What does this fold into?
Amino acid sequence: MMLAVRPLNDLEAAGPVSGFAGSWRSRNGDPQFGLMPAESTLTAGWYRLELHWRLLAGCIEDPMLYLDYGDGPSEATMIALDVRGSDERCSALLYFPQAVHALRFDPSTKACEFALDVPVLQPMEAAGVARDRFVWMLRQGLPAWSTWARLRTQSGGDMQRLAESMVRESKLAPVPAAVASRVTAFVRNLFNGVFAARAQGESWRTIAGNALRAFGADGVRGFGGRLHRFVHAPGRAGSDGSSYERWIEQCDAAIDAPATGPLISVVIPAYKPPAGFLAAAIDSVLEQSYAQLEVCVSDDASGDARTLALLRDYAARDARMRYVLRDERGGIAANTNSALQLAQGDYVVFLDHDDLLQRDALAHLAVAVNARTAGDVVYSDHDCLGPDGRRRSPFFKPDWSPDLFLAQMYLGHFVAIRRELLQQVGGLRSGCDGSQDYDLALRCVAAGAKVTHIPHVLYHWRQHPDSTAANPGSKPYAHEAGRKAIQHYLDLQSPGAIAGDGEHLFTYDVRYPLPATAPRAAVLIPTRDRVDLLSACLASIFDRTLYPNYEVVVIDNDSAEPATQQYFDEAGTAHPNLRVLPAPVPFNWSHLNNLGAAAVDADVYIFLNNDTVVISPDWLQRLVENAIRPQVGVCAPLLLYEDGTIQHAGVVVGMGGWADHVYKGEPPQHRQDLFVSPMLRRNVLAVTGACMAIAADKFRRLGGFDEEFIVCGSDVDLCLRAHRSGLHNVYLPEARLYHYESKTRDPRAIPEVDFVRSAASYGSFRTDGDPLFSNNLDPMRSSPSLRPSPRG
It folds into this structure.
């Protein structure tokens, strides 16, 4: 409905302004409009208010909307409006708990001149409000899917509660950068990106094609992020073009294939493959440098004469070629099982009918088997094969990461499994068509399989319109099949855990159960004065944390300012679960945190810096539910700088010569560009001490923090001791906080003893690499980038 614009106070009509109903001048800073016709009433419910105005002179400050429920407008019914630009369109979601008899709009508390169009008020259903906030969060790159799933569960199906919660959550979210600055950065990055691409030898056609694909996949916001990464991390830019091809020539050397070794069966389920693809797939197997192999193909009753003739021809020419023709359609799982019945090898490798094996793929597997380093399940890195026949988009994977595997089927297509294990688990299951390989691998892991990784690109995933390599949305049913496969695994391995949808297609969010009595968590925060930082940190904890059973212990390291003690007294009175632990000792980060841990009776310790601010209300529950898992050592959240870029998304030991945060300074966006997306849960060697969680019994068993470290390094050291004891450390991007640490740290502020102890603790990881990163990537860059050639 169109509202009225009735001047009530301190308003003079000014001259006409094109596109607006009128312009107005306020001389005393108290302008007031009535927005509803006389004697009209608005029913209770949700509304969207649309305002369009333009500042002509002066300034706008504190615009407000006042509601009159029948007793006149008052401060209690006031709603602040977020309108700050000089030519602004404001859209506000409003909920009226009862009928509204009048609306008053006060545009400013300062003298000003402005144009105002006739406002629009649109009624909305609660479900529409919830969806509106979901879409807004999605567009801002915020955790929309996980927020929706969490709040939908908490609302118990009550759509009104869900709408209120989604609106409240969106208000807590980080405010996006100003549009003007985003546009400026976009244009600047576009110019620099094109210039850099041309300088690296990319053709105009390649540049345009990459741009169109990025727009199609990510939209304007995602494309802007890609441009930023291209310009600021040129070593990564070639992952889709000539830079990767040059890297292949320089770094991807062939190996000598062993003369003897295991028989390897390559299984190919086929059903009406595009012309030429099946022949290319079979050729990529028969032309392997390792010869002890067989090809087992099953045709799923396609009735395709070309496929039948092709299979007969290959079988006549090479005794290693075997095939079967099914009498009736069975789907991908049944078709693969038919091919498996032909297999006689020690290991079975799965190959899609439109993909290719790298020429030394089976040689790498045979070498690992002969050396007894191959697990029961073996996977490799992979890249994509474009329609132009060029290799691009490599994915360099970490070694076995069970938490990542429950967030995404990251193993990819080159998966080799011992045939005995395949027989033990019963092959593939038809109920999981679309994610049958995911389900199979999960059942192998549940059966106790050892999983190992060959860090070489052994598989080329062909990009074409019907493949998820080029079009992830081509098989939407596969996402739900993957979630069901994970849930089946969890029902066996972690009863009570729930596999939810991740924020993006083919990603998942596993939630773990808590005991009937929620574990006691102690949030331990060392500080010395700096009330400005500490007060913001504590306010965010107490205002936003949903987890019920926690206490906050401030470890006061000899604060001297009177304001600090006053704040301690006031905060302690306001929050019964806050206490201050005096620690009048010389600064030693490890010692202070050990003192805090020794002073509390808790099940889980959360070590937290005083310069952090909570973003996600479920941060503490996510940390606790993972910290108490028997196989988990230390876990930590995603930390963002104040500007919204990544401060912590896991620590790579050896990065920069010591240890550093991968993806530091990059936007928190889901992307698989050379390495794992920063927005996916994964196992890491180490996490930051700025916010880390560990079960109290494990902390004591590991011996706490090593107090020979003074400033830094003991957080990584604790994580490495957990890793060496057989525990998994976990990075949890679903839990999010700000960390206001400077983006650069002066190494002169770190005592020499910390370097000495770090060198002893980090050991061979500094020289041999972090197994949960990739030695194919540059260890001197925090942004994943192709490793420079050893030849120069």
DSSP finds 22 helices and 34 strands in the chain. The longest helix spans residues 204-232. The longest strand covers residues 45-58.
